[in-house]
Amino acid sequence: LELLHQEFNQKNFVIIAVPSNDFRMELSSSESVLRFAKHRFNASFIITEMLNIIPGKKQHPLFKFITKQTG
Questions:
Q1: How many whole angstroms separate alpha carbon 45 and alpha carbon 52?
Q2: Looking at residues 35-61, what average pLDDT do you find?
Q3: More exposed terminus of the chain, fewer Cβ within 10 Å: N or C?
C-alpha cells in the first residue's frame, strides 16, 4: 500500500487502509495496527481505526453502504 501511495499520491489517488479484526487476523487494537504499519512499512497513507466489515448489527456504515451498492 505504501508503494501505491507513493506512486499515486500526487495524482489525487488516496490510499486508505481499513483494519478489521472480524476474521481474528489483525492486531488487538487500532493503535497497535498504526504503530506496526508506521514502524514496519513506514506507512504514510491514511489508516482508519479498526472497523467491523462483516454484515450484521455491528457493521460500520461505510461497509453497509458498500455492501448495498455491490449486492
A1: 20
A2: 93
A3: C
